């Protein structure tokens, strides 16, 4: 946790939102530890900007609606923070194929989830080495703030080391 998986996924999401791309729709879904298909359905339907009629529908009806819409679109689905495998059929998300050109990208802390989700490609992210985390922190904070008080550099360096290489920012 804390190595930047969500930040990387957010950057990908923003890039697709800002630039013309090959996808009809880009969908970001925050999943988290307490996997709830209702929440996933609702986030997808909100992003698809479907009329509010779906809010009172059953999970099965929501699934069919998602299936119907995404079955006709080239989409990229970004699933953030998977703690266990997500059954895409239960959500109504068509499997990405070469023919439909759709993609699914997800973040997880678990290699087992990658295996269970049958990921085609994996990118392992590690913490920054302490020196790189410190350099990133200095660049983000700026020299003026770091030199604002004689104790700040020493304290900030100590905190950076205790955070196991996670980059810090103020």
From TrEMBL:
Gene Ontology molecular function terms on file: ADP binding
Pfam family, one: NB-ARC
Domain NB-ARC: 1-145
Coiled-coil stretches: none
GO biological process: defense response
Recorded superkingdom: Eukaryota
Entry keyword set: Plant defense
Protein name, entry field: Disease resistance-like protein
Lineage of origin: Eukaryota, Viridiplantae, Streptophyta, Embryophyta, Tracheophyta
